[in-house]
Amino acid sequence: MDALYIELAKLRKDATLTQSMADVDKIIEQLERAKECIVQDPNSASITLTKLQNPIKSGFDKVTEDLTKVDRGLKAYGKALNKNFPVKALPTEYDALASHPNLINRAIAMHMLREGQFSVASTFLSEAQEYPPQPEPTVGTPNPSEEDDGDLTSLKSRELQERFSNMYQILHELKARNLHPAIEWARMNSEELEKRGSNLEFELSKLQYVWLFLGPEVNGLPDDIHNGYMGALQYARDHFGRFQGRHLLDIRKLSAALIYRSNLRDSPYYRTFDTLTAWDDVSASFTREFCSLLGLSAESPLYIAATAGAIALPTLLKLASIVKEKRTEWTTQNELPVEIALPSSMIFHAIFVCPVSKEQTTDTNPPMMMPCGHVVAKESLQKLSKGSRFKCPYCPNESQPKDAREIIL
Amino acid sequence: MADHITSKLNQDTHLILDQPLIRLPFELLRKNFKVAHFTVEKEGSAVKTAVRETANASLTASSSPDEVLKNVDSMLARMKGLKRKLAACQEEETRLQQQSVSRIRHLAQLYEMQSLDDVKYEEWSRTRLDRLLVDYLLRHGYKESASALSKEKGIEDLVDVETFVQMSKIRESLRNQRVNEALAWCAENKKELRKMESKLEFMLRFQQYIELVRTQEQSKLLESIAHAKKYLLPFKDLYPKEVQQACGLLAFPPGTRAEAYSEIYSPHRWTILANLFMQTHNTLLALPPVPLLHIALSAGLSALKTPSCHSSHLSSSISPTSSSCITTSVCPICSTELNDLARNVPYANHTKSHVESDLVMLPNRRVYATQRLEEYSRKAGLADGMIKDLRTGEVFKMENTKKVYIS
Ligand SMILES: [Zn+2]
Ligand SMILES: [Zn+2]
C-alpha cells in the first residue's frame, strides 16, 4: 500500500489539470491583448492577427504538453496499481443469490434494525417496497423465489424495531451503570431464560448487590441507607430469596463478604467484587439472551457471514480455477470440496466427521454409537456390519448393528 | 482440530472484494482526463483555424476590422467555454484524487493488524460490510437508503453514490421505455464502447426501429426504413441475426402470431436493454457484474453452514460453543436472517471432527461435555449426581449417562 500511496502523491503533485488551466489562461490573455490592439488601432487588425497565429499555436502546444504529463502520470499510477494491487477475478459467473433478492432484502432490513439504525432501516423498507427487486433465476439452483415473494412485507419490521429499540434502551442504561431496566426485563422473561439455562437475572442482581456494596465512592449514588453495605444487605434480603433454590452457594459467598468489608482486597471474595469487566460482561450476556429469545444470533449474521466470506474467498477462488477446468460448479454441490479455516469465534456447531467414511454426518446419515462408545456414521456402520455381528474398527469390541444408537451432538 | 481454525490474516489475498474500491476512482480519473483532452483538442483546433482564417481574410482585405473584432470575440468566448469545462474536470480530478487517498488509507489500516482476532479487524470488517451494503443498495437503485447509510457511518469517501445514481437514472429511463439517455451515454463513451465491441448502441437503435414499426403509421414506417438504413444495416455482418429480424419485421405487424416476431414486440425487451446497459456500464468502469455482497455472502454462507443448520432435530442448532459461557448464541446460519437464504448453498467441508472433550450421552441420546453438564447442573441447584439437559431441561442421574469416544 505504501508504494501505491507514494505513486498517488506524485500524481497529485505533478500530474493535474492545474497547469493546463494556467496555460489556457495565457491564451485568453493573448486574445484579449490582440482585441485591445485592434480596438485602439483598427488598421492593425491584419498584422495583429497574423502575429497572433504562432503564439496561439504554441500556447495550445503547451496545453497539450501539460496534458501529456497528466496522461503519463495516470499511466504510471495505473502501473503501480497493477503491480501492488493486481487484478484478481471474482467468482461472478454463477450467482446463487441472484434468485433471492427478497431474502437478501429481509436480511439487510433485520441487520439494520438489530444494529439500531432505525431511520436507515425505515428508509430502506419503504424504498424496497416501492421498487421490489427482480429475482434473476439462476441455473442449477432450486428456485424458491416464488415463496420468497412479499417476505419484506411479512417481516414484522415494526415489532422487530420496537424490540430492538427496547434492547438498546436497556443497554444504554447499563452503560450508565443502571441495572434496573435489565433486571426488570430478565424477571419478566425468567421462565424462558431458565429454560435456556441462563442465569442472567441472578447475575444482574448479583452485580446490583456488589455495586451497592462498593458504596458511594465507587457507584456515585446518594450516600444514604440504600447505599453501601447496608443498602446491599437490604437489597439481598429483598431480592435474593427467589434465587435460593438455584444459587444458594453464591448467595452465601456474597453475604459472607460483608464480614470482610473493611479489607476486601485481601479477602477470598475480592474477585467477586471486582467490577472491572463485570459491566461489559453483563451487557454481552444480556444482548445474547435478548437475541436468543427472539431466535436470533447475538451478533449480526450478515456481519459474520460477510466476514467469513472475505476469509473464505481466497481459498474458494483457488479452487474455482481448478474446477473450471473440470467444468463442475462448486456452488451446486452439497458440500464444498475444500476445507476452509475460520477463526474459532465462527464455529457454532459440533461437527462429527465419520472416521471411516471421512464424511460429515447429516440427518439422513446420522452418527451412531456402538456399545463400546465409539461413533461412526450410519452408512459406515451398515457397510461394516452387513447386517450381522461385527467388530468395532477402533477397539476389539464386537456388537450387533441393532445395538448401535443414534446420538444427537 | 488446528487446521480448520485460523486467525491468520493475509492482507494481500484478503482484499479481493476491495478491488473496485481502488479501481473505480482510477477508471473515473482516466475518463475525466479523456474528457479534458477531447475538449482541448476540439476547441484548440477550432480556435487555431479561426485565427488563421481571420488573419487571411483580413490580409486579403476581404473582412473589415469590425468583422475581425467579432471573430476575436467569438474565439474568446470559445476559450472561456474551454476554461469552464477544464475547471469542471479539474474539480472532479481533485475529488477523485482525494477519494483515492482516503481509500488507500482505509486499506492500509488492514496492514497494521496482526490477525483476525485483532479488535481493530472487527471495526474494519464492519466498515467493509457497510460498503458492501451501500454497493448493493445502489445497484438496486435504493439511492436514499444508500446515502443515509453512508452518511450515518461517515463513509462517503469509501462509496460511489454518484456513479451508481447516474447509472440508475439511465437504467430507469430504459425501464420506462426511453432510449435517449442511454444513447447520450453511448455517445459520451463512444471510443471505449467500440474498443470493447459493445452491442449496446446497436440494440438501442434496434429498439427505436421496433417502436417506429409498432405504430404502423405510414410516416413512421417510412422513418423506420431510413432509420434501419442508417443505424442497422451497416452492422449486418456483425449482427446478422438481428439485422435479418429487423428486415423481416415490416411484414409482421404487432399482434402477429409468428413467435419469432411477436417476441420482438414484447415489453420484456426493455428489461433486457436495461440489464445490458447496466452490464456495459459496469464493464466499462471495471465494476463487478453482480453486487459484491452476493459474492461475499455466498462464500460466507457456505463456509459457515453445517448439516445441522437445516436439520429437523429440534434445537440441535443451539450447541454450546465456548467454554466460557454456559448459554449459547444462535448460529448465524440458523438465525432467521440467513436460514432460508443458505438453504441452497453447499455446506462447509470438514475433514476432522470438532467436538468438546470428555463427552457423555444422556438417556435421551443427546451428547454433552461432562464438565459443562456438571457446571450447569450445579448452577441449576441440582443435587449431587443429578444432571440437567442443557437444551431440553430434562433431569437425569449421572450414572445413567454413557461415555462417548470420538476419534
Ligand atoms: Zn469400539
Ligand atoms: Zn447453524
Provide a descriptive summary of the structure in words:
Chain B: It comes from Hymenoscyphus albidus. Chain B: Involved in the proteasome-dependent degradation of fructose-1,6-bisphosphatase. The complex is a heterodimer of chains A (409) and B (407). By secondary structure, chain A is mostly helical. In chain A, a hairpin with a 5-residue loop joins strand 2 and strand 3. In chain A, helix 9 runs antiparallel to helix 11. The longest helix of chain A is centred in the N-terminal third of the chain and has 40 residues. Chain A starts with a helix and ends with a strand. The relative contact order of chain A is 0.06. The mean pLDDT of chain A is 87. About 3% of the residues of chain B have low confidence. Chain B is mainly alpha-helical. In chain B, helix 6 packs across helix 7, helix 6 packs antiparallel against helix 13 and helix 9 runs antiparallel to helix 10. Chain B is built from 16 helices and six strands. In chain B, the strands form two sheets. In chain B, strands 3-2-6 form a three-stranded antiparallel sheet. Chain B has a two-stranded antiparallel ribbon with strand order 4-5. Chains A and B meet through helix 1, helix 2, helix 3, helix 4 and helix 5 of A and helix 2, helix 3, helix 4, helix 5 and helix 14 of B. The structure holds zinc ion (2 copies). The site of one zinc ion (ZN) has 7 residues of chain B, from loops.
